[in-house]
Write a structure and sequence with these properties.
By secondary structure, the chain is mainly alpha-helical. It is 33% helix and 0% strand. It is built from 3 helices and no strands. 2% of the residues are buried.
């Protein structure tokens, strides 16, 4: 920025333009505190998907959660995110998985609160 070469290329300074006045800022509303989100509840029915995608079954829940933890370790290995944010991300992914799980015949809602 302070190179002599740059200074040699300056031919002059043009006339400055007048600016308009800055208008007064109206009142700023107070920001409300962000609250913690509640648990995701399972929907009563899930539409059948066409194509090659496999439905997420409740029996696979613990395996999926293990995969989430394993991938999170790899993903966050060199991350500078605070541990609390890493935990929140892992929990959000688990909540998304929980919301997509379907119950097989004979399963009950007693599974919905396990972690």
């Amino acid at each position: 920025m302070g190179d002599k070469k740059d200074k040699d290329n300056i031919k002059g300074i043009g006339k400055t333009q007048k600016t308009s006045s800055v208008s007064k800022v109206d009142g700023v509303e107070e920001v409300q505190k962000v609250e913690k989100a509640g648990a995701v509840t399972r929907s009563a029915g899930v539409a059948k998907t066409s194509g090659g995608s496999q439905a997420l079954r409740y029996q696979d829940r613990e395996k999926l959660f293990g995969m989430v933890e394993e991938e999170a370790l790899n993903l966050f290995r060199n991350s500078k995110l605070p541990e609390e944010q890493k935990r929140l991300i892992r929990e959000a992914v688990k909540m998304a998985i929980d919301s997509a799980l379907i119950e097989e015949d004979g399963e009950t809602e007693e599974h919905s609160d396990k972690d």
